[in-house]
Amino acid sequence: MADKEETSASILGTARKWGESSVPPILLATLIAGQNLRPPRFIPLLFPPAFLFSTYLNINGYVADSAGVTAAWSGIYLLMARRRKQALMSKWGLKGILRGATMGTCLANVVGGGLVYALDRNKSSDRED
């Protein structure tokens, strides 16, 4: 029984640390820019500035707000990237692996950032009452 509690606590702790960190938005901005700069696709290139702004918020102490921005933009990018179809053979090339890493990082950002945003927003609203 204690192992289950420790495991769930460690999973939540890991997701919370991921959501509070300023590194995942920078990583995601780098991956998205690397995929979409050659040839330039302008709609996906709107995402890296949002992630850089999220990192700026995080560094300035707005951790919950940064986590919310990161989770929201990651979710939007994940939905947008999921719509693009790829052939089976191109999934195992360099571009496919890079796309998979980007989508995995987006999913981790949605989970971690959403968790931090939801939990920290509840704490701050309790303090105001």
Topology:
Layout: H1 2-20, H2 23-36, H3 47-59, H4 63-83, H5 94-128
Question: In words, what does this structure look like?
Answer:
With 129 residues, the protein is an all-alpha fold. Helix content is 79%, strand content 0%. It has five helices and no strands. The protein has helices at 2-20, 23-36, 47-59, 63-83, 94-128. The longest helix is centred in the last third of the chain and has 35 residues, at 94-128. It is globular, with a radius of gyration of 16 Å. The termini are far apart. The mean pLDDT is 87.
**Helix share bin:** over 70%
> How large is the share of residues in beta strands?
under 5%
Shape: globular
Number of strand elements: 0
Computed over alpha carbons, the radius of gyration is 16 Å
Helix/strand/pairing category: mainly alpha
Low-confidence stretches: none
Overall mean confidence score, pLDDT: 87
**What gap, in angstroms, lies between the N and C termini?**
36 Å
User: Biggest sheet: strands, sense, closure?
Assistant: none
Order of helices and strands: HHHHH
Multimeric status of the protein: single chain
Number of DSSP helical runs: 5
